């Protein structure tokens, strides 16, 4: 990998890792579903008018928009709003790798490699250690929502494998557009129109900055650069960088939010990241870029 592209890959990892801390900041002044809706609105507008159509079937855009934009991010934001801290969220959300592999086996009829099976077992042990951690401050119900969100991420990855979008950024812009209206409707129904209006009226610079970061840095910059890298290099070269996202996320949460990591959680993190490594690192480079990797590594 060229030095410039290496720096770009590391920049995306840092942006996606810090993303979880930014979500926490945004949730301090805004209900979760409204925050998620605003994130996708500004990621989509005005970009959809500048980039043109997504170049894939609309059913795939709608499917990923609902699975990734509405279900995955909606549940993640709700879980974090209910007490799952940023660092832990960045780690547990990576259980999406387990679901992605399982869905590929069930839906795409792919034969799992031995390393993938071993990786799933190792990662599951890590997740179990987190659930059984008596020092865990997050409510188990909220933690379960993060795992369900990871499951929907796996659904989105599987749909993306079918779609094979030729332009990652354009695809994600339209996926973002699909998510806006359902998220707004759910916000009005569950969070209430008055709470939404009050949050928008009371928004401060930190809230504006959080929305801008989520929309432009994490979504447009992150996916745009990630897609560029996957067009330049094999997935086996680019995908391992995603292993650093929870490392950055947990480190950022510790430095910026004072989120401590206990011994059991540290061991669990090592198991989850090690399990991820087993599922995505191959002995031989794949023939072509796997479209599932385009969505697989972001937050």
Task: Note the topology.
Elements: H1 3-27, H2 32-44, H3 47-51, H4 58-81, H5 86-92, H6 96-106, H7 114-131, H8 140-163, H9 168-190, H10 193-201, H11 205-232, H12 235-238, H13 244-257, H14 263-280, H15 292-296
List the defining traits of the structure above.
299 residues; mainly alpha; single chain
Order of helices and strands: HHHHHHHHHHHHHHH
The amount of beta strand, in percent, is under 5%
Count up the helices.
Answer: 15
Mean pLDDT: 87
Task: Quote the distance from N terminus to C terminus.
Answer: 24 Å
Structural class: mainly alpha
Question: Could you walk me through the main structural features you see in this protein, from its secondary elements to its overall organization?
Answer:
With 299 residues, this protein is mainly alpha-helical. The chain is built from 15 helices and no strands.
Explain briefly what this protein structure is.
The protein has about 300 residues and is mainly alpha-helical.
